[in-house]
């Protein structure tokens, strides 16, 4: 007659505990009959007598002949064990899961190891076993079973017990994954068998995830198409699934690694979750520190994480920290976990990694794929799908922000939340705010964010220079139409940004022009002092520049590199290592500017120091001339706000003709004069302007002749 499978874990536990009770009673009866043990001895477990020493020296570990009554009992116990095993086999045959069978399957536990798990679980089900274990082990303080007790209960005769001792080795599945971590006993037989709290909760079904892993690890929800724009991901999913199924079919099956790299929100985690869902498995994700910063707590975290993943048969996604140097790029320590994990492991990084920076042993199947930023047309579609935007508004955001799908979704969610707080429907301005919230930059002390306040009307330059600046703005404003609709993005692999050189004396408006363009395009702008970026240490300059361009790429921020003379000079013959690496730095910056999709500006006071070959590779070279009298008069006038009380004697044309200074100095003079007038309680007049001009000119060793400013001295 076929055995009936168990329907619940409780039904199984009940039979196992009844069998354990019978085993304990049998063990007790054996001790009384064969060892002449007195269960009522008040000194039991506290004192070793001479008689007990003699008995211990003469015992033969279970090979004694049993009386008829004990022999009958032993046969009954064996029959009960066979009945339970038959029902468990029926569960396996009919694919009816039970906690203990699932645990054994995940970790490859054999029959004896399953019995040890049941023995260790007993005190968690009924506290009477704490007293029973204390009695059986001659130690009332020992409330948990030991390896010795497990061998005596389940190991059979002396030969059987000896054969099972290897079960309790530290690297075996029982002790490594199932039993509690902590101080281990010196001998094998003395090892306590305490289940880890997570194993207890798993067997009893009281918890679905180890809470100790929070916040480092988490289960990944299955992505729903309504929540994620699954545009153009089917091809990659097919590749990933084909790779996984091909390697799962290997005999014997082994570890495999999938390396996905791409920017924040590119879809790396989503692809891992989709693969897991297609395989009918959960997915767990863990964020890691660089290996150079690992501690004992890190190893414990990895142990718990990979145990949790094995319990669920999960697909694993590991997200390492970006390496801060060569010492952070290795994965040697992680190999101990990934090289033996039986399900797919995803390695999710922001940038590509070489073979030595992957947690895969030689010979392990590896698939690598990049999740690139979508092109401008796809970004426009993503913006339109994510929010209430018309085609023109979506095109503008797509052209301005080089966002991944995830960042677009987050920006749209931010916009919707802001609109709800404002009590209105989400508009283009809300989506702009949402996009800026995602485009945060981590440039540290390498750049200073500009706060654009100037408009085109504030910029006083010859018409030719103004036209070139407007042309540069138009190249950014209409990039969506030219690169997207007109198809130029498919023709250009790089050089889709605008690189410019601003050359001219100090104070002629170079920084102001960058701010005007930022204000016109509603873009962020950052000022970088190249003299602070250049380092005497080989490779540091390139590293600093890479951080700046990588951070700015997300939102096409305007990068304004001041003091370009610090890195660009006339090329000369390479005479030593310093000359060689100076040219490497120059070439690297040029390459980054050509590959940058936004606006990058170099500012110099001395155009003659910039190599001609370099200037030929720039989009625009704009010369900022020293202003003539007419332009100086306009500068004087434009610097005075309309709300400023102005004396009738102010003559901007006279100031423009007589005081030959650039716009930066004019600004200083006007601001100083305004404070002079305010402190005297007067409107701003020529006396204050001339006095402030005298102070400004003294900085450069120039003077104003009193005869030319009669009445104002």
TrEMBL record:
One of its GO terms (molecular function) is ATP binding. The keyword Ribosomal protein does not apply. It comes from the Bacteria. CDD domains: RecA-like_protease. Keywords: ATP-binding, Nucleotide-binding. Residues 496-628 form the AAA+ ATPase domain. InterPro entries: 26S_Proteasome_ATPase (IPR050221), AAA+_ATPase (IPR003593), ATPase_AAA_core (IPR003959), P-loop_NTPase (IPR027417), WHD (IPR054472). Belongs to the AAA ATPase family. This is ATPase family protein associated with various cellular activities (AAA). It comes from Paenibacillus methanolicus.
């Amino acid at each position: 007659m076929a055995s009936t499978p168990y329907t619940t874990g409780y039904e199984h536990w009940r039979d196992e505990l009844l069998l354990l009770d019978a085993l304990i009673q049998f063990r007790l009866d054996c001790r009384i009959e064969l060892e002449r043990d007195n269960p009522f001895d008040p000194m039991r477990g506290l004192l070793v007598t001479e008689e007990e020493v003699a008995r211990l020296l003469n015992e033969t570990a279970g090979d004694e002949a049993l009386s008829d009554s004990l022999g009958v009992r032993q046969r009954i116990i064996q029959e009960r064990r066979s009945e339970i095993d038959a029902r468990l086999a029926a569960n396996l045959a009919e694919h009816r899961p039970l906690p203990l069978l699932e645990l054994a399957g995940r970790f490859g536990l054999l029959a004896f190891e399953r019995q040890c798990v049941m023995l260790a679980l007993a005190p968690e089900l009924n506290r009477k076993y704490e007293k029973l274990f204390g009695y059986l082990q001659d130690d009332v303080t020992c409330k948990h079973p030991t390896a010795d007790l497990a061998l005596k209960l389940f190991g059979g005769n002396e030969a059987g017990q000896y054969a099972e001792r290897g079960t309790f080795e530290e690297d075996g599945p029982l002790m490594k994954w199932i039993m509690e971590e902590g101080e281990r006993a010196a001998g094998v037989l003395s090892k306590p068998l305490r289940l880890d709290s997570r194993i207890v909760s798993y067997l009893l079904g009281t918890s679905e995830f180890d809470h100790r892993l929070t916040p480092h690890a988490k289960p990944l929800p299955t992505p729903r198409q309504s929540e994620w724009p699954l545009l153009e991901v089917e091809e990659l999913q097919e590749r990933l699934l084909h790779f996984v199924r091909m390697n799962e079919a290997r005999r014997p099956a082994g570890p495999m690694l999938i390396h996905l790299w791409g920017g924040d929100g590119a879809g790396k985690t989503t692809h891992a979750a989709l693969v897991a869902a297609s395989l009918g498995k959960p997915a767990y994700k863990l964020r890691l520190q660089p290996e150079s910063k690992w501690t004992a707590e890190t190893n414990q975290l990895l142990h718990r994480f990979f145990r949790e993943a094995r319990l669920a048969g999960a697909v694993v996604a590991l997200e390492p920290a970006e390496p801060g140097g060569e010492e952070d790029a290795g994965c040697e320590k992680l190999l101990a976990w990934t090289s033996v994990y039986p399900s797919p492991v995803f390695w999710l990084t922001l940038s590509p990694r070489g073979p030595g920076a992957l947690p895969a042993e030689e010979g392990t199947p590896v698939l690598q794929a990049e999740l690139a930023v979508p092109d401008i047309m796809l970004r426009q579609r993503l913006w339109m799908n994510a929010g209430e935007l018309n085609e023109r508004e979506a095109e503008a955001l797509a052209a301005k922000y080089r966002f991944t799908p995830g960042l677009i979704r987050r920006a749209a969610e931010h916009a919707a939340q802001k609109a709800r707080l404002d009590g209105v429907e989400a508009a283009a301005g809300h989506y702009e705010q949402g996009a800026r919230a995602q485009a945060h930059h981590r440039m540290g002390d390498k750049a200073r964010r500009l706060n654009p306040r100037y408009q085109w009307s504030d910029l006083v330059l010859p018409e030719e220079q103004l036209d070139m600046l407007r042309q540069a703005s138009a190249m950014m404003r209409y990039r969506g139409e030219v690169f997207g609709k007109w198809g130029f993005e498919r023709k250009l692999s790089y050089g889709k940004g605008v690189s410019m050189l601003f050359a001219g004396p100090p104070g002629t408006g170079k920084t102001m022009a960058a701010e005007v363009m930022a204000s016109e395009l509603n873009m962020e702008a950052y000022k970088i002092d190249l003299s602070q970026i250049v380092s005497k240490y080989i490779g540091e300059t390139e590293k600093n520049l890479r951080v700046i361009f990588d951070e700015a790429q997300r939102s096409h921020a305007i990068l304004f590199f001041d003091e370009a003379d610090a890195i660009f000079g006339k090329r000369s013959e390479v005479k030593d290592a310093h000359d060689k690496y100076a040219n490497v730095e120059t070439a690297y910056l040029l390459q980054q500017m050509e590959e940058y999709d936004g606006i990058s500006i170099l500012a110099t006071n001395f155009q003659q120091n910039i190599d001609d070959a370099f200037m030929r590779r720039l989009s625009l070279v704009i010369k900022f001339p020293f202003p003539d009298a007419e332009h100086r008069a306009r500068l004087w006038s434009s610097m005075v706000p309309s709300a400023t009380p102005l004396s009738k004697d102010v003559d901007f044309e006279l100031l423009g003709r007589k005081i030959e200074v650039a716009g930066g100095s004019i600004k200083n003079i006007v601001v100083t004069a305004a404070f002079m007038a305010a402190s005297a309680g007067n409107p701003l007049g020529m006396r204050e302007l001339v006095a402030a001009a005298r102070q400004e000119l003294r900085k450069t060793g120039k003077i104003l002749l009193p005869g030319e400013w009669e009445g104002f001295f």
